Description:
There is one protein chain. The chain has 7 helices and no strands. The chain is mainly α. The relative contact order is 0.15.
Amino acid sequence: MIIEGLKRFVQLLILLAVQVLLMNHIHFFGYGTPLVYVALLLYMPSSWGRIASLVWGFVLGFLVDVFSNTPGMSAGSMTVAAFFQPLLLKAFLPKDALEDMTPNYHTMGVWNHLRYLTLILILHHITYFLLQSFSFYNLVDLGMSAGISFGLSWLFVVVIETLRGHE
Protein backbone atom coordinates (compact mmCIF):
# COMPACT_ATOMS: atom_id res chain seq x y z
CA MET A 1 0.00 0.00 0.00
CA ILE A 2 2.87 2.40 0.77
CA ILE A 3 4.52 1.74 -2.60
CA GLU A 4 1.18 2.22 -4.35
CA GLY A 5 0.70 5.51 -2.49
CA LEU A 6 4.17 6.69 -3.51
CA LYS A 7 3.43 5.82 -7.14
CA ARG A 8 0.21 7.86 -6.96
CA PHE A 9 2.12 10.76 -5.38
CA VAL A 10 4.68 10.73 -8.20
CA GLN A 11 1.83 10.61 -10.75
CA LEU A 12 0.21 13.55 -8.94
CA LEU A 13 3.43 15.57 -9.17
CA ILE A 14 3.96 14.71 -12.85
CA LEU A 15 0.37 15.55 -13.81
CA LEU A 16 0.54 18.77 -11.80
CA ALA A 17 3.75 19.81 -13.56
CA VAL A 18 2.40 18.91 -17.01
CA GLN A 19 -0.81 20.82 -16.37
CA VAL A 20 0.73 23.93 -14.87
CA LEU A 21 3.85 24.23 -17.02
CA LEU A 22 2.53 23.02 -20.36
CA MET A 23 -1.22 22.56 -20.73
CA ASN A 24 -2.27 25.85 -19.11
CA HIS A 25 -0.49 27.66 -21.94
CA ILE A 26 -2.47 25.93 -24.70
CA HIS A 27 -5.61 27.85 -25.70
CA PHE A 28 -7.10 26.24 -28.79
CA PHE A 29 -9.17 28.85 -30.69
CA GLY A 30 -9.18 30.93 -27.51
CA TYR A 31 -11.63 28.49 -25.92
CA GLY A 32 -10.08 25.13 -25.19
CA THR A 33 -7.43 24.34 -22.62
CA PRO A 34 -6.63 20.66 -22.04
CA LEU A 35 -7.16 19.59 -18.44
CA VAL A 36 -5.10 16.41 -18.22
CA TYR A 37 -4.69 16.29 -14.45
CA VAL A 38 -8.02 14.43 -14.31
CA ALA A 39 -6.07 11.37 -15.46
CA LEU A 40 -5.06 10.80 -11.83
CA LEU A 41 -8.60 9.65 -11.09
CA LEU A 42 -8.47 7.21 -13.99
CA TYR A 43 -5.53 5.39 -12.41
CA MET A 44 -7.08 4.88 -8.98
CA PRO A 45 -7.19 1.16 -8.14
CA SER A 46 -10.62 -0.31 -7.57
CA SER A 47 -9.74 -1.29 -4.00
CA TRP A 48 -9.03 2.28 -2.82
CA GLY A 49 -12.65 3.36 -2.52
CA ARG A 50 -14.41 6.68 -2.49
CA ILE A 51 -12.60 8.41 0.39
CA ALA A 52 -9.16 7.89 -1.17
CA SER A 53 -10.48 9.14 -4.53
CA LEU A 54 -11.96 12.21 -2.86
CA VAL A 55 -8.77 13.04 -0.97
CA TRP A 56 -6.43 12.54 -3.94
CA GLY A 57 -8.81 14.38 -6.29
CA PHE A 58 -9.22 17.33 -3.95
CA VAL A 59 -5.48 17.60 -3.22
CA LEU A 60 -4.55 17.59 -6.91
CA GLY A 61 -7.36 20.02 -7.74
CA PHE A 62 -6.28 22.33 -4.92
CA LEU A 63 -2.65 22.27 -6.09
CA VAL A 64 -3.71 23.03 -9.66
CA ASP A 65 -5.82 25.92 -8.32
CA VAL A 66 -2.88 27.30 -6.36
CA PHE A 67 -0.49 27.24 -9.31
CA SER A 68 -3.03 28.21 -11.99
CA ASN A 69 -4.83 30.99 -10.13
CA THR A 70 -8.23 29.32 -10.55
CA PRO A 71 -9.80 29.75 -7.11
CA GLY A 72 -11.60 26.53 -6.26
CA MET A 73 -12.62 25.50 -9.78
CA SER A 74 -10.20 22.60 -10.11
CA ALA A 75 -10.64 21.45 -6.52
CA GLY A 76 -14.43 21.53 -6.83
CA SER A 77 -14.60 19.78 -10.18
CA MET A 78 -12.03 17.14 -9.18
CA THR A 79 -13.95 16.46 -5.97
CA VAL A 80 -17.19 15.96 -7.92
CA ALA A 81 -15.46 13.68 -10.44
CA ALA A 82 -13.73 11.77 -7.62
CA PHE A 83 -17.07 11.25 -5.89
CA PHE A 84 -18.43 9.41 -8.93
CA GLN A 85 -15.18 7.67 -9.94
CA PRO A 86 -15.70 4.46 -7.90
CA LEU A 87 -19.24 4.08 -9.25
CA LEU A 88 -18.12 4.56 -12.84
CA LEU A 89 -15.21 2.19 -12.34
CA LYS A 90 -17.47 -0.54 -10.98
CA ALA A 91 -19.89 -0.01 -13.85
CA PHE A 92 -17.22 -0.62 -16.48
CA LEU A 93 -15.06 -3.26 -14.78
CA PRO A 94 -15.31 -6.77 -16.15
CA LYS A 95 -17.16 -9.16 -13.86
CA ASP A 96 -14.04 -11.28 -13.33
CA ALA A 97 -11.77 -8.32 -12.43
CA LEU A 98 -9.43 -8.56 -9.48
CA GLU A 99 -10.33 -6.52 -6.42
CA ASP A 100 -7.14 -4.45 -6.43
CA MET A 101 -6.54 -3.99 -10.14
CA THR A 102 -5.52 -0.67 -11.67
CA PRO A 103 -7.79 0.48 -14.49
CA ASN A 104 -6.21 0.55 -17.95
CA TYR A 105 -6.83 -0.73 -21.47
CA HIS A 106 -5.54 -4.19 -20.66
CA THR A 107 -7.53 -4.85 -17.50
CA MET A 108 -10.81 -3.25 -18.57
CA GLY A 109 -10.77 -3.72 -22.31
CA VAL A 110 -10.40 -0.88 -24.78
CA TRP A 111 -14.07 0.10 -25.15
CA ASN A 112 -14.90 -0.09 -21.45
CA HIS A 113 -11.83 1.96 -20.61
CA LEU A 114 -12.65 4.60 -23.24
CA ARG A 115 -16.23 4.88 -21.94
CA TYR A 116 -14.96 5.16 -18.36
CA LEU A 117 -12.44 7.83 -19.38
CA THR A 118 -15.04 9.74 -21.41
CA LEU A 119 -17.63 9.85 -18.62
CA ILE A 120 -15.15 11.03 -15.99
CA LEU A 121 -13.83 13.73 -18.33
CA ILE A 122 -17.36 14.88 -19.25
CA LEU A 123 -18.37 15.05 -15.60
CA HIS A 124 -15.21 16.97 -14.67
CA HIS A 125 -15.41 19.42 -17.58
CA ILE A 126 -19.09 20.24 -17.12
CA THR A 127 -18.50 20.93 -13.43
CA TYR A 128 -15.32 22.91 -14.11
CA PHE A 129 -16.86 25.19 -16.72
CA LEU A 130 -20.08 25.69 -14.76
CA LEU A 131 -17.98 26.80 -11.79
CA GLN A 132 -15.93 29.04 -14.08
CA SER A 133 -18.89 30.82 -15.64
CA PHE A 134 -21.12 30.55 -12.56
CA SER A 135 -24.13 31.26 -14.75
CA PHE A 136 -26.08 29.97 -17.72
CA TYR A 137 -26.05 33.39 -19.38
CA ASN A 138 -23.88 32.56 -22.38
CA LEU A 139 -24.47 28.88 -23.04
CA VAL A 140 -22.80 28.95 -26.46
CA ASP A 141 -19.44 30.08 -25.03
CA LEU A 142 -19.84 27.69 -22.11
CA GLY A 143 -20.55 24.79 -24.47
CA MET A 144 -17.70 25.69 -26.81
CA SER A 145 -15.21 26.02 -23.95
CA ALA A 146 -16.29 22.76 -22.36
CA GLY A 147 -16.51 20.89 -25.67
CA ILE A 148 -13.16 21.98 -27.07
CA SER A 149 -11.43 21.46 -23.72
CA PHE A 150 -13.03 18.03 -23.41
CA GLY A 151 -11.87 17.02 -26.89
CA LEU A 152 -8.31 18.17 -26.27
CA SER A 153 -8.24 16.61 -22.80
CA TRP A 154 -9.61 13.32 -24.12
CA LEU A 155 -6.97 13.24 -26.85
CA PHE A 156 -4.09 14.05 -24.48
CA VAL A 157 -5.27 11.59 -21.81
CA VAL A 158 -5.53 8.80 -24.39
CA VAL A 159 -1.98 9.61 -25.54
CA ILE A 160 -0.76 9.66 -21.92
CA GLU A 161 -2.49 6.35 -21.25
CA THR A 162 -0.94 4.81 -24.37
CA LEU A 163 2.54 6.06 -23.46
CA ARG A 164 2.09 4.97 -19.87
CA GLY A 165 1.45 1.37 -20.90
CA HIS A 166 0.11 -1.04 -18.31
CA GLU A 167 1.12 -1.71 -14.75
